[in-house]
What does this fold into?
Amino acid sequence: MGIAGSGMSALAQYLHGIGMTVSGSDRFFKAGEENETKTKLEAEGIRCFVQDGTGITPGIDLVIVSTAIEDSVPEVMKARSLGIPVIKRSELLALIASSRKTIAVAGTSGKSTTTAMLFDILENAGFQPSIISGAGLVSIIKSGKIGNAKVGNGEWLVIEADESDGSIVQYKPAIGLLLNIDKDHKEVETLMELFGQFKNNSEKFVVNRSHSLAARFSQDAAFDFAIEHDKHAGFVATDFDQQGLVISFKINGHDFQLNAIGKHNMENALAATAIAVQLGVDYDVCAKSLQNYEGIYRRNQVLGTRKGVWLIDDYAHNPVKCAAAIRACQPIAPKVIAWFQPHGYGPTKFLRNDFVAEISNALRPTDEIWMSEIFYAGGTATKDISANDLISDIQAKGCKAFFIEDRNELLPSLRAHFTHDCVLLLMGARDPSLEHFAKQVWEQL
It folds into this structure.
């Protein structure tokens, strides 16, 4: 239930891939309406239902629910009345992870990208790995699939370990990887407790020694990675350079080049390489794999350039990610116009000051930040904050900041702000219509 979500659809495809009979429902499925995720799942042989209870039958062995599914949903009540066990998504992922040699990728930023990069390296190295990711890999999407899951014949499984709902403590991986720790869904103190338990549950633990909080959990410096020599890590990236949409750097003296932007993607590539090399993969194989890396859905996704404007779509949704996405676009053009749609009234209020500080610090004098109103997914949220409050705070810091309540009015308002050489960066998460919005902007650009 909630099968259209990125995490749930990945689990459904994985279970189907190992030979189980899988079906699912979602509140976004409407009778007679086209839904791309539903179409792709059904093409795989996974039956999909409107979330009205018709999909729940006595022959079902197990019901899996996403965190968005409440106990009051009629399907949950029907399943329980039939005596069918109901478990959370994270519980299922923990069961799957315990059945394979698992590499669990954790951290508040970069999980999806690092998971995808590591999967690509291991696949090119002949490991025949499996993957369960929170975002679709372009290389898999091109074959007509959703792209966030694949079952391989090898022993290794690469997964994202999510800290946002606390489920990270359920995984007991062969290798735990910690990229960074920043205030996001939870306060830093809570995150430190969760990641500490994650370390204790991991047989081998690898951390980013360039991130002071992550470095505290180091198991052995020789396992770790960093972007500075003085961190005494076993894997070090140096000589970062970005030319347009391409970055280059060295890892332990070996040359690497990616069709990606931003220093954060060098760190992601470094993390993936550090794990792969420790599994016996040659540096040259890592470099070649990453040179051919095609990216993942809505992560610095370049839609193209039109009339001197580069359009880039990104999943950035917390303060650090938004700042990193803006900075990654700055070497491309003299002006970046960033648009952001916050999600959730509670999270936006919780992170208000952090958003203001991080985005203000990232903007150059020529850059601009635009926001539309907070995405509301339903439920009982208290609407006691507006995206305009963040814009007012950013304006007070002397930055160029604008509020446009309805995102459908964004492009007409932006036209006078475009130059002959600029980037329009779209940022946001959780809203399933953001992909369509980006395509709409591209068509109208």
